[in-house]
Design brief:
This protein is about 45% helix and about 10% strand. The chain has about 350 residues and is α/β, with parallel strands linked by helices. It has a single domain (about 5-340), classed as TIM Barrel (Alpha-Beta Barrel). The strands form two sheets. The protein has a seven-stranded parallel beta sheet. A two-stranded antiparallel sheet has the order 2-3. Helix 9 (about 160-170) packs across helix 10 (about 170-195). It is globular. The protein starts with 6 loop residues before the first helix and ends with a helix.
């Protein structure tokens, strides 16, 4: 794809496009009626994740119904962990039958070849890329090593993930061994998505806010740097999204990502000053603004756009869409960004 055709890719590369691109975090599909109908028909969400035709349809829904400027691959953050031999079910979120907490369990993790072990995800990428307009990029993604480890070690969703955090103190060598294995997985997985047709990738670090800045330097930064270095020769933009981690803001410029996505807690000016002048930022509307009045939503969107005017910026929510978010408000959000950008 010619980057000049895509405001999203232009912004990712540090250019200032004529219009501000907007896309919605990966949960956008769940507010759409066609998605809800598919959930009703197929029951288990794992069927939707693991069926390329269905996953491709869902990936395209926000493009067709909301008019956003980039598509985000419909899969789950924990999807690649099953290829390690770590089986899980949804109840309603991922629940792992056997958490990984010992050296023997880390050693038993399988080597993953994404082309064979995660081929259904790559087929989804190919199907979507074949159906998207040339000017609309597809974003692939994976969880950061620390975030993936949080799921594997805890075994289920948690507010604080004490099992992994305890491991950092009780047996840091074991934690590093697990992070090494997960870094190998993420490198392989994201490279395979890019080769299948993804034109940008995002690293979601949704549990990274649990770390202090010193812990971030020790247990996260080296592995993120290795991922970015591994992907650099493929010449696609890498976006890093560290959720609720403003305490480590000064460290994110060292990751090696091309763009930084920030949540609603982080001021864009502070993020730009730390990440680097004229470097791309993504964000950062509070998803709960979509529950407010139309007048307040429009005002909040315009404040963010005005704050980023003249800078490479991708408008996005500061995290995912809640399931009961009114569709009309999301549509208004997209229209407001596009209207502002055309002025």
């Amino acid at each position: 794809m010619d980057n000049t055709q895509s405001p999203f890719l232009m912004a990712c590369s540090g250019q200032v496009p004529d219009t501000t691109p907007i896309w919605i975090m990966r949960q956008a599909g769940r507010i759409l009626q066609p998605y809800r109908e598919l959930r009703r028909q197929h029951g288990s969400i794992s069927t939707l994740f693991n069926s390329p035709e269905l996953a491709a349809d869902i990936t395209l829904m926000p493009i067709d119904l909301l008019g956003v400027d980039a598509a985000i691959l419909f899969t789950d953050l924990t999807t690649p962990l099953a290829a390690l031999g770590c089986d899980f079910t949804y109840d309603p979120g991922p629940v792992f039958a056997r958490p990984v907490r010992t050296a023997a369990e880390v050693a038993a993790l399988r080597e993953v070849d994404s082309e064979t072990d995660l081929g259904f995800v790559l087929e989804t990428v190919r199907l979507v890329r074949g159906r998207l307009p040339a000017s609309v990029p597809l974003i692939g993604y994976a969880g950061g090593p620390f975030t993936l480890a949080a799921w594997l070690v805890e075994g289920h969703s948690s507010k604080d993930f004490p099992a992994l955090r305890g491991m950092l103190h009780a047996d840091p060598g074991l934690a590093h061994g697990l992070f090494e294995r997960l870094t190998d997985l993420v490198c392989n997985y994201l490279e395979a998505q890019i080769r299948a047709g993804a034109q940008a990738v995002q690293i979601f670090d949704t549990s990274i806010g649990l770390l202090s800045p010193e812990q971030y330097d020790t247990f996260a930064l080296p592995y993120l740097q290795r991922i970015c270095k591994h992907l650099a020769p493929l010449a696609v933009p890498i976006i890093y999204f560290p959720l609720a981690a403003a305490q480590s803001l000064s460290h994110f410029s060292q990751v090696g990502a091309n763009a930084l996505s920030v949540d609603w807690r982080t001021d864009l000016d502070a993020a730009r000053a730390s990440f680097g002048a004229n470097r791309p930022l993504q964000g950062n509307l509070d998803p709960c603004a979509l529950y407010g009045t139309e007048e307040n939503l429009i005002a909040a969107v315009r404040r963010i756009l005005a704050q980023s005017e003249g800078q490479p910026h991708i408008f996005n929510l500061g995290h995912g869409v809640f399931p009961d978010t009114p569709y009309a408000m999301v549509k208004l959000l997209v229209e407001t960004v596009h209207e502002f950008s055309r002025k």
